[in-house]
Design a protein that fits this description.
Length: 232
């Protein structure tokens, strides 16, 4: 496959992936993440996250394990992996969502839920802004789920800037703490979601909120780029 043709197919595969996310297991998402980073950035070029950033370390380990794999090979493997799950993905209608998806919170899929069984947390994880707007209430906008996360934590975890904006406009507390004392800014920093970090800071997220273990968002930032944004 010629390089330009390969890149075009890879880009199309990356745009299709979000529609598949609900059916993927955490280890499968890590594979996609690693191939994507290797294809778009190259060899892992960041230091390993601190011990307490468990999810960020899993992503780093997956990427680093690819060593010197070429960008072309990584793109080919990404495409092949997607084809294992959806053989005819390249003949289907182009998804309306795009961008990379977070694998920071490793949990089983809720894809077997019926539409009527889904709550606002499911809508946030799926990135369904319209359903979130229609179902949100002042009572649940700052509630924590059974995993101890609020809606804003999930949106930041997923790297969904538009969902973060939606929730803040609906009254979400930008400095709401999860069950471990972390805010949405902690999640965005640990996951490396630059746009979400910048957006939260524009909305005056408090960089001095420490989690229960005493760590600030700066302390668990995945790389220097995120730390530099926090320091500005």
């Amino acid at each position: 496959m010629a390089e330009e043709s390969l890149r075009l197919k890879f880009n199309a595969a990356a745009e299709h992936l979000p529609s598949l996310v609900p059916s993927l297991k955490p280890d499968q998402l890590l594979q996609f993440y690693a191939f994507y980073k290797q294809a778009t950035v190259g060899k892992c070029n960041t230091s390993r996250p601190n011990w307490y950033a468990i999810e960020a370390k899993q992503k780093w380990d997956a990427w680093n394990s690819l060593g010197n794999m070429s960008s072309e090979e990584a793109m080919s493997k990404y495409i092949a992996l997607l084809s294992e799950h959806v053989t005819d993905w390249d003949t289907l209608e182009k998804p309306t969502t795009n961008g990379w998806v977070s694998v920071s919170t490793m949990r089983d899929s809720d894809s077997d839920l019926e539409e009527s069984e889904k709550d606002i947390f499911d809508r946030v994880k799926e990135g369904d802004i319209d359903k979130v707007k229609s179902s949100a209430s002042t009572e649940d906008i700052n509630l924590l789920d059974e995993e101890g996360l609020g809606l804003l934590h999930w949106a930041a975890d997923r790297g969904n800037r538009d969902m973060v904006k939606c929730l803040l406009e609906l009254g979400a507390d930008i400095n709401l703490k999860d069950s471990t004392g972390q805010t949405a800014l902690h999640y965005a920093c640990a996951c490396g979601h630059k746009e979400v970090v910048e957006f939260l800071l524009q909305y005056s997220a408090d960089v001095n909120v420490a989690c229960n273990d005493g760590f600030l968002p700066f302390d668990i930032a995945v790389d220097d780029e995120i730390r530099n944004i926090i320091k500005k």
